[in-house]
Fold this sequence. Notes:
The protein has 948 residues and is of the alpha/beta class.
Amino acid sequence: MSTPEFSCVIPAGEGGAQALTASLESVLAQSLGAVEALVVLAADAPDALRAAAASLAGRSPDRVRVLDPGTGSVAAGRNAGLDAARGRYVLVLDAGERLQEHACRNLWEAGARTRADLIAGRWSRLTGDGTKEREPSWQHPLFLSSRTVGRFTEAPELAVHDALVTGFCLRRAALERHALRYDEDLTRSEILFGPLAAAVVGRIALVRRRIVSGRAAPDAGRDLAGLVEAHRRVCHVLVAQGLGDLREERDRAFLRDHLVPLVRSFPELPAAVRERVAATAARVLPGSVPEAALLTLPPVERVGVRLLEGGEADRLLAAAYALRRRGVVAAPLVEGEDGRTYWPGGREPVLDVTELGHQYRSFGELKLMNRLTRYEADGTGVALAGRLVLPGHSRPGPDATLTAHLEFRVRDGARSFRTPVTTLRPDATGISWSVRAGLTRLLRPYGLRDTVWDVRMVLDDGRTRSVTDLFAPHDLVGPADRSPALPRLGRTTGDTWQPYVTLRDHLALRLEARHRPARTARRLVHYATHFRPARRVRLLARALRKRADRYRSRGFKTSVYRSWLLRLPVRKGSVVFESHMGTCYGDSPRAVYEEVRARGLRLRCVWSYADSPDGFPKDTRRVRRWSWRYLWALARAEYWVDNQGFPQNLDKPSGTTYLQTWHGSAYKRMGFDETRVRMQNAPQRERLRAAVSRFDHFLVRSEHDERTLARAYRLPERALLRTGYPRNDRLVAARARDEAEGRLPRPPLAAELGLPDHRKVVLYAPTFRGGPGKRKRQRLLLDAARFAERFGDTYTLLVRAHYLEAANLPACPPGTVVDVSDHHDAGELLELADVLVTDYSSIMFDFALLDRPVVLFAPDLDTYSAERGSYFDLREKSPGPVTATEEELFDVLARLKTADTGFQERRAAFAEEFGAFDRGDASRRVVDTVFARHTVPSRTESTGEAGR
């Protein structure tokens, strides 16, 4: 071969011949032909590996060279490869790593285009079990697009993370000019080499393509000393370059990328390895884990790293359980004199775990770690022992009579067997327990499908039960702990109980067939269920299941609805109500329904629910959304009433009147004004047009709604009802009541939620930020824990997530933060609230009717309004202060009375502009208009302009 463009250096070592073959074949398969491979053998390489290298080189002698520098150091072997390289670019692969087919071509083209000295791309590594690959999460922003940087500080992730351990190449001229070498006294020299090269070379090109796959799964415990020393030297390079800020970032990344995963993996390691790793950590970590970086980690993670630094293997195992099982109390937490909660071991900030909120949960609410310390099989019985952790603040009463039993429960089933725990020894930090169970006679499965059983302990103090899994390190049980099994259908279905520790780190038992009769029976069953007639039966059963699924599918139901159900005659006086796609009993449909009932109209009312009928009127027919009963009710209803939209693909019957009450005035662009909708294809836009064309009546509450919603959905003038929203009648009445009688006593809902009178109520109701799909839990922009810590004595925070989302709240002191996302009617919450905090939600238009303070918390106001679009400038018209950070929000709440003074006139103007038609009689006017032929003289008096 003439002078190659690429020289790929492959140190042959770990992984043996198979790994070497995989790496070498990926080099030879490159679409760029001018690539050579340099296989570097270690001095102690086994004969089999040498023979494999020689065989591979013999297949392509012009492209593969085998080097034997006579050294056992991997770094020295890499340096020998660099010295022997002839290509314009040099790339180093560890054995087992594979180049993507066009890797060298992509790197070469980027180098030719940018004239960069270092070209880097993505790489992926194996996951823990070695069956899948994944790119590190931090690679996405680094390689989001191909680009060129003049200095590596313009792409700090190159040095902050170990981005340059593989997947990059160097121009050989730059390699020689800067005399770049791997440190031969460093076992993890690849970690240092990349940042060192990036710091001294000139231009760097980043390629968004993946270059390398198959990198070994990270294993910090294998060579922790080398890993820490490599990190320390990289930090020295950064400091020498005057990049102290990057050094701090790297310290934090080192904890997240290496030490925290090491702590998390502890239960999977054998006991001897755990002790070795802990001893090594105690020797090399002190001085390498800055306190400032450690305090940036979440509580349990920083505790785990601190325990690793101290070399405490047993306590570290407890922290690892807490990391792997979120919310588990894995140590006897203690409360300091300062009121903070600490992990046992001191009162230093690193051990402060107050923000976990365990101190606010009672004994029965806590997830406690019950660590299994002994499992010994003896004939047909087993002896088990363990220790249940008890935090200092929450434990059974001193006079409580403790009882406990072990429960063996079939996986994914309801059957269980119990045996009492014979010994319970409580002390200051927990409860030690032991039991001997006759496993063979106690646990009697049928033996066919009930082959896996989970074990847990139930502790009862006479008032409260605590249910805990039995946590254990993965090496606690093994083949020596098997016990004989006696299934109810005989030993041919299984004959042995094999204990094991699950991926979730708790004890389980598996029924196995180890002796000849059971093995023979299982082979016969396997044959009977897999030979040709059985396969045909399975295929037929699968086809029948698919057919049944088709009959239950929405597509089939829609076709039946259109073809047959729409032919049914309309049932006079029948009304189908739905609120927010069946997720709640509330909003304007509820107000209209209650007006109908209050006036005694002879209407047959049906309510639609999405998941559960709980909370919906029990004296009214309830149907599940998309059920056959739901479709039947819609097809025969004389009236449809909802605030969001019945399913778009369900046509309205010809004799049906559709009342669309809608769910709020618009700040963000809606309907055909949305960019998302404008970008849709013609059939999609036509489906939206057909859906809104079903509306016979559409409620508006101001001229703003006419200019925005009515125009955005292209609604005709005749469809608009200028009545205001029925749901706001209660708010207008509450405003009048406040002015006449004051705010106290509070509505009955306050007592239901346990809200004390001396605290003001802040309702936090952010807008919907997700997309189509199932309900998802979202992280709130407002930190509820910080709010509780700052205002817990003066405010109670009610969190109302959007009905298409769910809030993920931290544990807070009782009475400070309450999740009211599942409360059916937001109007009741508005009536209760003293202050509203929101962002772009239409709830602010309703709350303004109460003339109470509104604070807008909108950290992404400019971005949101640019991406979604808006109908007006929120800062210009807002009914209250607009805050961009938590500190600004907290400052406003701390001086709320003063801050709100300047917004009273603006809030009145806001309510007048966006709620001009809300006069408190919308329910009556809507019922009189829509259900005119069913009405009797109204019992509801108009409130007129009360409260305006």
